Amino acid sequence: MVKELDKVDVVTIGAGWTGGIVAAETAKEGLKVKSLERGAYRDTTDYQHVHDELKYAQRYELMQDTSVETLTFRNKRDELALPVRRLGSFLPGSGRGGAGTHWNGQTDRYMPYDFEIKSMTEEKYGKEKLGIDSGLRYRDWGVTFDEMEKYYDKFEKTAGVSGEENPLGEERSSPYPNPPMLKTKSLRLFEKAANELNLHPIMMPSANMSQSYENPDGEVLNQCQYCAFCERFACEYDAKATPDITVLKTAEKTGNFDIRYNSNVTEIVTDKDDDKKVTGVKFIDTITREEYFQPADVVVLTSFLFNNYKLLRVSDIGEQYDPETEKGALGSNYCYQTGLGATGFFDEQFNTFMGAGALGMILDDFNGDNFDHEGLDFIHGGSIHFTQTGARPILSNTVRKDTPEWGEEFKEESIKNFTRTLEVYSMAHTGPHKDHYLDLDDTYKDAFGNSQVMLTYNWTEQDNARNKYLTERCKEIVEKMGAKHIDVSNDDIGAYDIVPYQSTNISGGTPMGTDPENSVVNTWLQHWDRDNLFVAGSSTFVHNSGNNPTGTVGAIAYRCAEGIIKYHKNNQRLED
């Protein structure tokens, strides 16, 4: 029998960055808020031990358990989709803080071009440049960079982002709240080479603290120790901005917020008397296996991309995208990012065993439309990165391409190159394609009886052309840095492979927009079919950019929270 709980004003599904921001902002306004988090409680004291690369980086202690819930994957619609049992291309988090606990801290902004990519491209190059004939389906987001800037600014202050002015960026309403991180020997080498090539390198915007910092909500973060255990790890020193030490603490201090852990939401319930509204959500306590109903005035999906999509689909809310007719929006606009580049082998040593998740330099000379695309067979581009995140002993075995994969020579080369290799790589945009989408796979069920999500995705000709171009730019920088030998990523990246890790930067599935025919939510992240249902996170992105998406995730969440507060006050659908 389903047990009904006391009604709340707002319930969020997930307690990561988006759930935490929505909770903090609405709770500060006096609304009663509850987050349902399927993972467990944890805090800084859980990480104050010897760094364990095997536990966290290899065995994914902070990630989703694929034996409970996963997805199936195929490259093309006519292929058989198979379940993914070892996470590779993306690492969904689980527990307090979600994926925001184990992120690197790279906190970029998207560009004006990203938000208005269709109109800007058509105006400058013509409609044919968008690649419609090849299946690409670009459109504008429905909101502009200028409208989003204040939300970017607010997130950066909450997260204490360390950074410096980007000469290729838009005008900021205020400086970064913290100065940039330390510039190491290897970063200075990259900077010198990039400047000699007339490029514009800057220190990477970083949510690793360059100094002790108190954010506007009164949460204190400590100075980074450059320990090299950021990505896939939580910070034992509260020196990396994460939801659990910022927005979740802020929400809890109001007295209007609590989190229920080990609570897996299985369904969004629509009002029987008013099909334009939802009444709450059903969830299962993963410890006791009891089922509950949590009523709420407003329901907000704030979990990882696949789960946002899945909850809408299994709850029969919205029209599923059909690649044959291209009708429906739910499941559409899935995009990823590619990360190829060039690795230089040097005679001198660098202290690459030290570092931080967002310790690095970045340049946007080949990002968006910052360079002329006339004569190129792709649009957009990518940022070029050089980072010193810390070479850890298990995953850091860089050897030349012609080195055997095991044996004495491999060991010698691995040890020799441990502190003698530097990589320059790109973070490249991908665009929405009519054959890239999410659906449900009824062949495979999760531990709670719902169908698993099925992903259909592959690289496009534009992706290959874009990556070839950016890889050449990376190689030019490594050459200028003085490498004795350079290994370059393959020119043709072939079929998309879900097994190797590239990044967790995925987007789409519940895209935003101004037209319910091609979007799931409006620009306030309010669902078109249910007035009191909101969706936040990268699932609402129309496409991916050439920058890290977390800054945009945070900005979107602040806009969503503002919309929720307006809606709850006036009980009226929001206008774009």
Automatic annotation (TrEMBL):
Keywords: FAD, Flavoprotein, Oxidoreductase. Coiled coil: none annotated. It is an enzyme of class 1 (oxidoreductase). It comes from the Bacteria. This is Gluconate 2-dehydrogenase alpha chain. Residues 434-557 form the Glucose-methanol-choline oxidoreductase C-terminal domain. GO terms for molecular function: flavin adenine dinucleotide binding; gluconate 2-dehydrogenase (acceptor) activity. The lineage of its organism: Bacteria, Bacillati, Bacillota, Bacilli, Bacillales. Residues 147-333 form the Glucose-methanol-choline oxidoreductase N-terminal domain. Belongs to the GMC oxidoreductase family. Residues 159-180 are annotated as: Disordered. SUPFAM superfamilies: FAD/NAD(P)-binding domain. InterPro entries: FAD/NAD-bd_sf, GMC_OxRdtase_N, GMC_OxRtase_C. It comes from Jeotgalicoccus coquinae. PANTHER family: LONG-CHAIN-ALCOHOL OXIDASE (PTHR46056:SF12). Its EC number is 1.1.99.3.
